[in-house]
Design brief:
alpha/beta, six-stranded mixed β-sheet, 9 strands
């Protein structure tokens, strides 16, 4: 059984951290597997959504410190950076499900997911300073942007953990659900049934940095006009007038 399980069904690729005896602590080999799975899903036209989950009682305890110290990160060609590039640039929706602890990279990777379901048991922490290192995965930029600089300092400098309700209040998680797996699958199925190119382009717009409101209006208008001529739009409009569910293949 693999430490990273990958499955595929109905346009959805599921990626699961599966090392429960070590609280899903992530090794270099696991980072390589995660990166390969994301790169393959990005390249596959049949994949519309990715789900990212851990165990029922633990998302991940973060880096496996024994593995990390045996081969510390020395350059940007390490598997961890392959993974961070793959998840931060992934062009399709990622739906994450979190139960129990999400430590270090277990929390920072969530900033690159699009919809996040947390169990009431979920708790999050940035343990970097306590280990004598600094935040990663772009979190020194993304955490202050989400929480503001003072709350970011509370969690990144003091390393204070926070629970699912607090994560929801920050806007880090989309919702709290008792059955995380069922809710993640429901969201993934709903996304997979939508027009995939429209979904991809909308995520691209949501993740784009910078620019003025006027520039964004112009960009949206250009894409909107192109989309009106697309097969997806024709099917969506036809289905609306024929009072039937659309079929995007």
């Amino acid at each position: 059984m693999s430490d990273v399980e990958v499955s595929s069904s109905n346009h959805i690729v599921g990626i699961r951290l599966n090392r429960p005896d070590k609280k899903n602590a992530i090794t270099s080999a696991m980072y390589a597997s995660l990166a390969r799975a994301l790169e393959a899903a990005a390249a596959d036209d049949g994949t519309r959504v990715v789900t990212l989950t851990g165990s029922e009682d633990c998302f991940t305890a973060g880096n496996d410190l024994n593995d990390f110290m045996a081969s510390p990160t020395a350059d940007m060609d390490q598997p961890v950076f392959h993974f961070l590039r793959a998840i931060s640039t992934f062009p399709k929706p990622i739906v994450a499900g979190v139960a129990g602890p999400a430590v270090g990279v277990g929390t920072t990777m969530l900033f690159h997911c699009d919809l996040i379901v947390a169990a009431p048991s979920a708790h999050f922490s940035f343990a970097f300073v306590d280990l004598g290192v600094v935040p990663e995965a772009g979190s020194s930029l993304l955490v202050p942007r989400l929480m503001g600089p003072q709350l970011a300092a509370k969690h990144l400098l003091l390393c204070e953990p926070f629970d699912a309700k607090t994560a929801y209040s920050y806007g880090l998680v989309t919702e709290i659900a008792d059955n995380v797996e069922a809710r993640v699958q429901d969201i993934a199925r709903r996304l997979a049934a939508k027009p995939p190119e429209a979904v991809r382009l909308t995520k691209q717009l949501l993740r784009r940095e910078g620019g003025t409101v006027a520039e964004r209006i112009a960009e949206e208008g250009e894409i909107f006009a192109e989309r009106l001529q697309s097969a997806e739009a024709r099917e969506a409009f036809t289905a609306f007038f024929e009072r039937r569910p659309p079929n995007f293949g």
